[in-house]
Amino acid sequence: MDKFTGEERFASYIIHYAGFPNMEFILSLIPEDLKKWQKTKPDYKFQRHLLIDVQGGLGDQVCAEPVLRFMKEKVYPGEDIKVLTHFPALFKHLNLPVFRHGEFMREPDIPYYSVNSLPGPDTMMWQVVSHLLCHPVDFIAMALLRRTLPNEDKQIRLKVDLPGLAEVMDVVGASQLSELVLVHPGKHWESKTFPAQWWQKVIDQIQAAGRTVCLIGADEKTRGVLDVAAREGMIDTRNLLSLDGLIALIASAKALVSNDSAPIHLAGAFDNYIVLIPTCKHPDHLLPYRQKIQYHKAIALYKKFMGDDYNSQPTELYGSLGDKVKGDYLDYLPEPTEVAAQVEKAFKEKESQADQGRT
User: Fold this and answer.
1) What pLDDT was estimated at residue 354?
2) CB 151 within 8 A of CB 144
3) Domains of the chain by range and CATH?
4) Can you give the pTM of this predicted structure?
């Protein structure tokens, strides 16, 4: 039972050895177990051991942060929680042992309750709820804790460190960080990869309004960033920043414009303006929680919600799929002028507040 509970055998009143095939080993183990029991008198306290396998892309792993924090602080305080991830930088502030995937070695005679943050479509989890049709923080909380979190606990927290800031200074400079408009022309599924010409119009119109556009993103095996042109006066950080650098840049910038991708979730840890262009996943299932709500300094823009054109019936044999575009992309995307206008509202609000302060 220990692997189902993460409890050592010493946490029981009785240790049961029957059925183990190596009697010689058992006879040598019993005296050692008795010694360990004696050392823990009179409290007999033993930590529970949990091994959290954080899976998915960067955005999914960012969304695991509030769940792990809630787990540590409110569900399993004082227990032995170890985290496996592709992105250790996301969890360094939690003061938990964090290991990159493939680097963790199990200790002998330690039972771990092992759980995956992103169970696949072939699991019982997906028979209950589809990842496409709920918020990722909720999906991960259900996978790890069999519950969802209170809204106030869903906000993502990330640490901005000095190396990340130094990297941003080297690539971007320091003079205009707080005025930058970050734009992420992401590339992944067909349904999340907008026409490059549309993105080009967006960044050109934001720049035409007098704002400084900073392109962000990185190319990976299965996802990346489109090759839109960085005009003179724009800043291009594509494929130049580490994760720490990207976090520091998002924390410092004025606004973010992005498709459904990791920068949206990273921005959930900070207080900049978010302009989301959703397609296959509803904005209520994407926008991060800040100040207990999802639309704090945030807006989702679309002509028509692409997700409405997908079959989401629970009787669908292959589940809900959202990777393809059903028709003409331009039927779903907002006009570039509308995106630029929403970015401008973020700056006008700040200028209006400054004017009120002067009066």
Assistant:
1) 40
2) no
3) 2-39 (no CATH), 49-153 (no CATH), 162-358 (3.40.50.2000)
4) 0.89
